[in-house]
Amino acid sequence: MTRARMLLAIALIALVALYAVWFVARAEWVALGVFAIPPAWLAIALLRGGGARTGFWAGVFALAWFSHGVMVAWTRPPERWLALGEALLAIAIVLAASLTGLRARFAARAARR
Predict the structure, then answer these.
(1) How confident is the model at residue 82 (pLDDT cuts 50, 70, 90)?
(2) Domains in the chain: boundaries
């Protein structure tokens, strides 16, 4: 497994842990399932050798997670820090999912010089 895939898996697992802390403390089991199952499935797929599609879908879902985190941070002050953590992890997921492509692009640009 590449370093980028490992960083992506770690960020996804951290997001699952954040959701567990956030929703179990409030006994919101349905919300836990809705929010924690997609990153858990993506992390499992990555750890089992998932391809580029897994990274793509992690990035797509991360856009929604980021939007949710920003919305909650602005509208619910008691949950602000958890929501900001969600937004930061979503940014980390997008960056980790894009890392392989970014490296390839800049390597090709450096090779042309």
Answers:
(1) very high
(2) 3-112
